[in-house]
Amino acid sequence: MNLSIRGGRPGRTPRRIVAATTATALLASGLIFGMLRTADAATVGAGSYTTTRPAGAAAPTACGNISANPRQYVTGNAPTGAVPTNDWWSSLLFKRYNCAYSDPLHAHPMSFQPTSGGLGVSYTTEAAISGTSTGVGEYHYPYTREFTLGVAGLNSPDVKVDGWSDWTVTPYWSDGARTLRTTIGHGLPFVYAQVTGGDAVLSFPGTPTVWHHSGNRIGFSMRGHDYVAYAPSGATWTVAGTTITSNLAGRGYLSVGLLPTGAGTSAARRTALMDSYGQYAHSHVTGTRVSWGYQQSSSTVNATYGFTTTAREGSATGTVISLYPHQWKHLDGGSPIAETYVSARGPMRNLVGATSFRTAMRFHGVLPEVPAVATSTGADLATLTAQLDQAAAGDPFAGFNNDTYWTGKALGRAARLAEIADQLGRTAQRDHLLAAIRTRLTDWFTASPGKAERVFFYDQAWGTLVGYPASYGSDTDLNDHHFHYGYYIAAAATLAKFDPTWASTSQYGGMVNLLIRDANSWDRNDAMFPFLRDFDIYAGHDWAAGHGAFFAGNNQESSSEGMNFANALIQWGLATGNTAIRDAGLFIYTTQSAAIQEYWFDSSDTNFPAAFGHRSVGMVWGDGGAYATWFSADPEMIQGINMLPITGGSLYLGYRPEYVATNWNALVTNNGGPPTVWQDILWSFQALGDGDAALANLRANPNYPVEEGESRAHTFHWVRNLAALGRVDTGVTADTPLYSVFNRNGARTYVAANITAAPVTVTFSDGTRLTVPAGRTATTGAYTWSGGNAGGGPITSPTPSPSVSPTGTPPPTPGPTNPPATSDLFHLRSNGVLSNTAGSAATTVTLPSAGGANYDGTPHNPVTFRACGLTGSYRSTATTFSLQVDAGTAVGAGVQARVSYDFTGTGTYSRSQTYHYFATDPVSGTESYRETAGLRSSSGEFRAMSNGCVRLELWNAIGNAPTTVRVDAATAAAGQSTVRVPFQLG
């Protein structure tokens, strides 16, 4: 629930739904707080936070009671420690607007509302739709009471929370003479209840239709929905008008199950479902728990969702589990029954008799930033560096508000620019930006006497860390902590790669961990914070409102800012070596990316109501969704709020590129034309589906207004490079979290980043291998490139495959080699360069396996070496080479070479020579592959060079194993690999 007002189109008034308090509005306007009342502070390494709220600062409120202790609404049976907030059931504790009970609780497939007499139960299957198909609109499956489960005579003054687990809650009623205890939860088609002091009562707004009445079971229908109430063995039910009662044979427990039946269900099938469910009716769910694991070799995140049951009678241990679409589409084992439930999230499928289920989701990687394959040379490099220099000049925080959200936006913008500057070797700009990030984070992470701004306060009553100045209800309502703090953590992750000392736990790393723990603690035993506060484990996504106290339930607007948090955890965990944080980030990232495709985008077109008319929502509510935001009615912002910020963790937005076009086309239709605000965000999204179109839009609109958290440099870098790389290719994974694969017209580029101090070799699932130098991002395939130093190293230029035209037009003129070539003899160097200068210490570069296929004559995953800026006359002689290759002990490999010439540096290689492959022997030790293997094919004619390029491509044409080529050798005796070109250079 991000309430920020981020601008609007002239002539159109942004729509803002008022949900923030007056105090929150004052904070957002820049209110300056008074001094700390005391100097109380707790140290964390070199950092600290205050334990005394700044004077005048707003606090969480419950039922109008400032800084109320939420434990007043909790019984002694509930778990100790920090109470959960930001959940689907949080209004039970917060009681923000309903002081005695709660607002509706949308658990799915049922919804609930406590009252003085018990638990109201609803199952709504018809969507209420308002608005238009091109303007603001929304759909809801609203709470509509079908019956109340209670105790005869119960009149409880309030409802307390008697317990909770990962996705269940246990409300508790007592009026001194009678008690009711129920357990409800996500994915539970049962309500489990225990009563004392009177008969169990089901009361209805009208006369129910009773279709089964025998012994301890009674089947009834309301509004066409079928339920069964299961009493203990030996008990009976009595029907009297609008009530159904039972004394439960004095045993005090029951359950009511919702059957997944509809108009076409036969009486026999309904009875069969009643019996099937009935086997587990007294196996009450008393706990739920998730666990997860990351399988790096297969890039898979597995999650197990477990249900603890207690048999009130009998010996059954299983239950009935209803699965959301993001779960059943990734189910790893288990066979759901045919019948489904209607829900606000689409059809829910059901496992009968299970105690757990498991999902398996592929993780398709994240990057520190997309690689600069097309922006590190020529005119585009000049454009980017000019934009980068302008953005990096001065104070990167100038013009941003001082609160937690806008500080975060500024941190995110600076971190993106620092990553680009690092890729391009612009170390002065990079270090300026990193210094600003370090200074600002250190300031926020230090609580000193008298300090009232840029300080974090720990609220022990609520178990939360609040930054002041707060914004958009992050203090009074505990809203949006994952949104705000995700930017801080992401910037800290960038800084940690360059300044690991600052990021150590003895310095400021502990404060970063504290922000993570507040928003989504990965540790169940955390004494300060609840487990996964903002992330709804079962729903698969975050909730933004701390209190969740709306008739429509909780809500979340910017799913992409939630993903920014998850990506930040992955990057920070990797940078600091904390695998627990990394894996929590991976679980949240993979799960939520699946949920976004289903519930924000409905990219399969199966979950939104058919009459809704929109192909995305700006906000997900507990009972539905809205094509709207809290701050604007502009279609650009309704759709764009679920895209920003654009980072190397945003690639999930391109997993379904066809949907990118669907989303874009809907935007143009709803907007009455192309976007006029937030174009940079929207073009960046468009580039994931059609990079050429996005780049054309960007080039045609150079004076577009920049979104506050973006920069022209970052948008150009992102769009220009995706135009070259193509779409995200989810068909290939890798054995590292920092990777991606792109595909343009069938040509793949494999990308991996290495933030460690030693080279790493990444293996992709199709057999491609990529050795990434320390502190670099590197590519192979259609583009071979390496950049980003994080500690030093040369910057090299991209090498596009001749079969790939990055934008449909020739790429810009490559820059000259440094120094200019003066000799026709070139040495193979490890950074993909052909150089007149030999190396100093021999090493090898790996050529990926052919994977058993035959690529004779066609480069496949080639490793490329290049020299540019060549000027000289053609000598009418042959190209020669001597390449030291080795297959180790592998049998049947064949290395192949192609040498190509671009005579004018336009990116068009007019002369190409492909040589017969060299069959390597299965004996360790290099062999010399020479041009004497003979030409297999050639094309084009030689002519003089004028600022031209020569390119050598090497690949395995046959075989099932990778091979190597020796590079960087200092002398011929050390095994130099060389190419001699037929030109008089210099």
Describe the structure.
The protein is an alpha+beta fold and 986 residues long. Helix content is 21%, strand content 28%. It has an eight-stranded antiparallel sheet with strand order 11-12-13-14-21-18-17-16, with helices on one face. A seven-stranded antiparallel sheet has the order 5-6-7-10-15-20-19, with no helix packed on it. Helix 5 (378-392) packs antiparallel against helix 6, helix 5 runs antiparallel to helix 17 (712-725) and helix 11 packs antiparallel against helix 12 (579-600). The longest helix has 22 residues, at 579-600.
Helix and strand layout, with pairings?
Layout: H1 22-28, E1 41-44, E2 47-50, E3 61-62, E4 65-66, H2 91-94, E5 105-106, E6 111-115, E7 118-122, E8 128-131, E9 137-140, E10 147-151, E11 159-164, E12 168-174, E13 179-185, E14 190-196, E15 200-203, E16 209-214, E17 217-222, E18 225-230, E19 238-240, E20 243-246, E21 253-258, H3 267-278, E22 283-295, E23 300-311, E24 319-323, H4 325-328, E25 340-341, E26 348-354, E27 356-362, H5 378-392, H6 404-423, H7 427-444, E28 455-459, E29 464-468, H8 481-498, H9 500-503, H10 509-520, E30 535-536, E31 541-542, E32 555-556, H11 559-576, H12 579-600, E33 619-621, E34 624-627, H13 635-640, H14 657-671, H15 679-686, H16 691-700, H17 712-725, E35 727-728, E36 739-744, E37 747-754, E38 760-763, E39 769-772, E40 776-781, E41 785-787, E42 825-828, E43 834-835, E44 843-847, E45 863-874, E46 880-886, E47 894-902, E48 911-915, E49 918-919, E50 927-930, E51 935-939, E52 945-958, E53 963-967, E54 978-980, E55 983-985
Antiparallel strand pairs: 1-2, 3-4, 5-6, 6-7, 7-10, 8-9, 9-34, 10-15, 11-12, 12-13, 13-14, 14-21, 15-20, 16-17, 17-18, 18-21, 19-20, 22-23, 23-27, 24-26, 25-26, 28-29, 30-31, 32-33, 33-34, 35-36, 36-37, 37-40, 38-39, 40-41, 42-43, 42-54, 44-53, 45-52, 45-55, 46-50, 46-53, 46-54, 47-48, 47-49, ...
